[in-house]
Amino acid sequence: MVGLLNIGSLVLGLVAWILPVVSLIRVTKHWAALSIMSLSACAISLFFQIYYTYHLVQIEDWAALMDTMGAVVVAGTVLLIVTLLLNAITLIAYRGKKAK
C-alpha cells in the first residue's frame, strides 16, 4: 500500500503539469480553477514523497533513504519549479483576456 505513494506522486505530478498546458492550449474561462487544481496536485504530490520518506524512517530503511534522497530532492525541485512556471505563464497569458 505504501508503494502506491510513489505512483500517486508521479501521477499527480503529471496532472500538475498537464492542467496549465491544457489551459494554455484551450482558451477557457476556468483557467484560474485549473491553476488552483494544478498547484494543489503539485502540493499533494510533494506530500506523498514526504510521507514515503517518513515511512522509510519509521521502518529504519537507511539504505533506501541514502539511495533515493538525491533523486527525490531533484525530482521535487523540478516538479515545483516547472509547475510554478507553467502557472505563471498561464496567469500572464490570461491577464486581461476574456474567454470565448
Structural summary, described in words:
Keywords: Membrane, Transmembrane, Transmembrane helix. This is Cytochrome c oxidase subunit 4. The chain crosses the membrane at residues 6-25, 32-52, 72-94. With 100 residues, this protein is mainly alpha-helical. It has one domain. It has 3 helices and no strands. Helix 1 (4-25) packs parallel to helix 3 and helix 2 packs antiparallel against helix 3 (62-94). The chain is elongated. It starts with a helix and ends in a 6-residue tail after the last helix. The model has no long low-confidence stretch (mean pLDDT 94).
Strand percentage: under 5%
What percent of the residues sit in helical stretches (DSSP H or I)?
over 70%
What is the H/E order?
A: HHH
Rg, Cα atoms, Å: 16 Å
Helix/strand/pairing category? mainly alpha
C-alpha end-to-end distance: 44 Å
Biggest β-sheet strands, sense, barrel:
none
Count every helix, treating DSSP H or I runs of 4 or more residues as helices.
3
Q: Low-confidence parts lasting 5 or more residues at pLDDT below 50?
A: none
Mean pLDDT: 94
Quantity of strands, as a count: 0
Keywords: Membrane, Transmembrane, Transmembrane helix
Transmembrane segments: 6-25, 32-52, 72-94
Protein name: Cytochrome c oxidase subunit 4
Organism: Sporosarcina koreensis
Task: Outline the secondary-structure elements.
Elements: H1 4-25, H2 31-58, H3 62-94
Helix pairs in contact: 1-2, 1-3, 2-3
